[in-house]
Amino acid sequence: MTHCIYGARRSMVDEPLVYQRNYQVEWVAPRVNLRELALLRFIQGKTERELVQYFGRSKTAIHELLARMLKNDFRHANLNEAEKRHIFKSPGHKYSQLAILVIMKVAFYEKVSGKNPIEDFILTLPKTDQARFADVFDGIEKHGLSCPRVQFRQLRGKLWEIKFNAASGGYRIA
Description:
The protein is of the alpha+beta class. It contains six helices and five strands. A hairpin with a 2-residue loop joins β4 (about 160-165) and β5 (about 170-174).
């Protein structure tokens, strides 16, 4: 049906216009239950391949979740104390060495004369770097080798090299 308005021909549609378009929706997979992951891996002894099939995630994703869990000492896995003890103290268990929480104490070398070259060096640095040294040493005593943003290398016995960055540059001390 066409109508003429002021001399122009224009068509009119009698039915309402409907525009339909289908969109593909990607559903976000629910988060992996870290407690369930810890129990399956460390108590029941499931392999990473079995966990990939169980959770429907990639091997890399499962591996990263496990690594993060180990680095954070299972803090976010909501395990009770009995489950943590079971993981850490299972005889011959692959991760039983985690049961030995290494409490590290930072001790400075002292010369026979009583002078401490490390403390003397730290005192010559700018205040921001001195504060970073204090933070690093506190973090090492609190978190041990899991101290964030600090790299460690065992030189021999109880002697360790500690590497970290501060405001005026990177430091490496042993």
